[in-house]
Amino acid sequence: MRLTVLHESMRRIRYRIPVTRMSMVDADVLECYLGALGFVREARVDERTRCATVFFRETGHKADLAKAMEAFTFGDARLREMVPENSGRAMNRRYEQQLVMKAAGKVVRDTLFPFRWKLLWNAYKSMKFLRMGLRSLCHGHLKVEVLDAAAITASMLRRDYSTAGSVMFLLEVGGLLEEWTHRKSVADLARNMSLKIDKVWKVLPEDSSQGGAEQRVLVGVNEVREGDRILVHTAGIIPLDGRVVKGECAVNQASMTGESIPVVKRPGGYVYAGTVVEEGECMIEVTQSAGSGKYDQVVKMIEESEKLKSQTEERAFHLADSLVPWSLAGTVVTWLLTRNVTRAMAFLMVDFSCALKLSMPLSVLSALREAGNQDITVKGGKYLEAIAEADTIVFDKTGTLTHAVPSVAEIITFDGAEEQECLRIAACLEEHYPHSVANAVVNEALDRGITHEEMHSNVNYVVAHGIASTIDGKKAIIGSYHFVFEDEKTVVPRGERSRLKALPAEYSHLYLAVGGRLKAVLCIFDPLREEAAVVIDQLHGLGISKVCMMTGDNERTAAAIAEKLQLDEYRAEVLPGDKAAFVKEERTAGRKVIMIGDGVNDAPALSEADVGIAISDGAAIAREISDVTIASGSLEQVVVLRRLAEALMDRINGNYRFIISFNGILILLGTLGVLQPASSALLHNGSTVVTGLASMTDLLPSPVERKRS
Description:
Blueprint (H helix, E strand, L loop, with lengths): L3 E5 L3 E5 L7 H12 L4 E7 L4 E6 L5 H9 L6 H4 L8 H24 L2 H24 L5 H14 L3 H33 L5 E6 L10 E6 L8 E4 L9 E11 L1 H4 L5 E3 L4 E2 L4 E11 L7 H11 L6 H28 L2 H4 L1 H4 L3 H21 L2 E3 L2 H9 L2 E5 H5 L5 E7 L5 H12 L5 H12 L12 E3 L3 E6 L2 E6 L1 H7 L9 H5 L6 E7 L2 E9 L6 H10 L4 E5 L4 H11 L3 E3 L4 H13 L4 E5 L5 H6 L2 E5 L4 H6 L2 E3 L5 H36 L5 H19 L7 H6 L1
Parallel strand pairs: 13-20, 13-22, 20-21, 22-23, 23-24
Antiparallel strand pairs: 1-2, 2-4, 3-4, 5-6, 5-7, 7-11, 8-9, 8-10, 8-11, 12-24, 14-19, 15-16, 16-17, 17-18, 18-19
Helix pairs in contact: 4-7, 5-6, 5-7, 6-7, 7-9, 7-13, 7-26, 10-13, 10-25, 13-25, 13-26, 14-25, 16-17, 20-25, 25-26
C-alpha cells in the first residue's frame, strides 16, 4: 500500500490512505495494526478523511512504517481478529453528530425563525424540563431538575425568552456531553477489563482410527466456534460461554453474577466467560464464540456496580443533593430582601450538583482507564481510594518478589529413573496449573524438545501442596516435600536418602513420585526480581510503613530475602490460611492492607485484604478474586498504582474545592447584580464541561515521558 505523506516531524507522521472509501471497521483494523507495531507509540485513524497519524517511540522509523504498510491489507482475517469487540468509534461519531445538529439548530432558529416561532419552540422545549422538575417534586425529592425547571419558568414568566432558550440549549448540550464523556470512559474501561485469553484446550471429535480415544489440542481462542467442545481444569478461567456436557466442577462466577460462593456445575449447567473453575474439570460445549457478549457484560457490571463509587465520591454526591434545598431557600430569601427577580435567579442558574456528579465519577473512570492503558486492571474506584490510604503491603514470594519466569536449574533422578522421562511426566502434570514454577517445568521440556501429550487421568490440584494424577495405573504426584513425603508417604529408594539430604540449598525443590516411590527432584532457580529492592524502598517513600513477605519456603531462605530487601516483617513456611490470618490481624489492628500474589494459594489472603493485587500471568482464580491485576513484567507497576491512586484523590479533592468556590462566586456575583442570569448559566455550564474534560486527562506522565525524565 503506497502512502501519501501529508505532514511529518521527528516522531510524528500523518499520511493519507489510498482508498476511495473507508468504513469504521476498516479504520479500527488499521489502527489496531499500527498500534501493535513495536516502534509505534500511538496511532489514530480517521475514516472520514481517510488519514492516519502515527506517533513513533523513537526517531528513524519512517522506513519501517512504510515497509509494514506494504504488507497490510484490510481484508486480512487475522488482523480483523485483533480489533476490540467495541472500539467506541461508532459511539463517538453518533455523539459528534448530535452535538453538530444541536448547534446548527440553535444557529438556524436564532437567525431565521421569527419571534413567534421562537416562542412556540421554547414553550415546547420547556415542557420536558418542567415535567422532570414536577416528577422530582412528586417523588418528594428536591434535586437539580427542580432548579432547572424553576430557572426556565422564571425566565419565561419574565418574558426573557432569550435567556430561557439559552439555558435550555446549555442544559441539553451539557447533558449530552456528560452522557458522552461518561459512556466513553465506561467503554474505555470495559475494553481494558474485557477477557483476554490466548489459548484453550479444544476436544476433537472422536476418531475411529484412534480407537475412539478423545483427542485434545491447544488452539487459539479465536479458532473456537459455536458447537466446539473445550476442556477447563482446576484453577482455569472459562474463556467462552457454554454448557457443561461432561464432568463436574465448582465455578466461581462472582464477576458475572455477584455470587460469592462457588456454584457446582454438572452436565446441562450453563457457564459464563470470565468465571473460574475452583475445583474439578469439565468439558464445555461453546454457545457463544470469542467476542460475543463479554464486552456488554463488563459494561453492565461497571455501570451497575457500587464498586465504582469511592467514599469520597459518595460524600460528593450526598453534598450535591443536600445543597439543592439551600439553593431554593437562597432564591426565596434573596427575592424577599431585594424584590429583584434577576438577582434571586442567581441561585437557580447555578447549582453544585451537575459539576460534582460529573467530575467525580469521570475522575475515577479516567483513572481506571489510565491504569488499564498501563496494563493495570482495577475493578472499582473504591480500591484506588484504599490503595491511596494503605499503610501495609504484603507480598507473596514465588512469582511475585522473585522473578516471574523461574527456570529448572537441575534435575536429580532417583530409583533408576531417566531424566528425560521424569521431565516429561512433570511437564504433563504441571501444564494444567498456571503458576510460575509450573511454567518453568513446562518451558524446560519445551526447550529440550520433549513432547508431553496427555497420558494421565483427571488432574487433582491440592492447594499449596501439589498435583496428583494417575499414569498407567500408578499414582503420580508432584509438589512440596510436605505433600510428597508427609501427606502421601512417598518412599525414598534404599541407599539414596543421603542424596536427598544433599540437595543444593540455593534452589527451591519440586518432588516427583510415581507409584509411591521418589523418581526425581527438580531444582528451581527462583532469583529475586531486579527491581524488587528499589520498589520496596519507593513504597516506603510513598508512605507505606510496613512491607511484609509471606512464603512457604524454609526459614533460612526467607530470612536471607527479607534482609536483602530490607523488609519490615516476614513469615516463612506458611499455608494459605496463615497468609489470610496475618492479613486479618493487620486489618483488626486498624491498618489498611494490600496483598500481592499470583497463585491459587494466595487467593484467601487476596480476598481478606482491603485490596488484593494479582499478577497477570498467575493463576486465573487469583486474578478473579483480586481487586487489581498488574502485568508480570515489573513490580514497578505497584509504585505506579500507588502514585496514580494518590493523584486521583488529589484531583477529586481539587475538583471539590474548585466547584464549590467557583460556583459560590457566580452565585455571589449574581445576587449583587454583577452577572445576568444568562451569563451565570453560561459560565456555570461551561465550567462544568471544562471540569469534566479536565477530569478525563491523565493523572501521571506517560511511560515514555517517565522514562525520559
